[in-house]
Amino acid sequence: MQSEFLAVENVSLTPMDSNRVLEYQTVFIEDVRITRMGPSQDTPAPQGAKIVSGKGKYLMPGFSDMYTHYRDPSEAPLYLAHGITAARTSGNT
Question: Do the Cβ atoms of 73 and 28 come closer than 8 Å?
């Protein structure tokens, strides 16, 4: 099975190490993992990559909700719609 390769070009990133924004970045995603990133002008997408324009947009990691009362799998789309990709339930009562 061949890997899917995605390049998000010219996107803004907010790193967690300081209060700053990295503009015009390219982020490579292979299958479900970020494999590389760098300034768009210095980081061309490889041949065969699906390219998505991030111009004027931000790319951020998923949020984790570490205290929730997750009861029903049908609620999952609501979490995802708000950027929550991991949830820890505190019980079903």
Answer: no
How many Cβ atoms from other residues are within 10 Å of residue 26's Cβ?
A: 22
pLDDT tens for the chain, residues 1 to 93: 567 899 999 999 988 788 999 999 999 999 888 999 999 999 998 888 999 999 999 988 788 999 988 888 898 999 999 989 898 888 765
Between CA 53 and CA 61, with CA 13 as vertex, the angle to 5 degrees is 95
| Sequence-distant (≥ 6) Cβ neighbours of residue 67 within 8 angstroms | 88, 90
Predicted TM-score (pTM) of this structure: 0.72
3-class SS of residue 82: coil
**Spatial separation of the C-alpha atoms in residues 84 and 62, rounded to whole Å:** 6
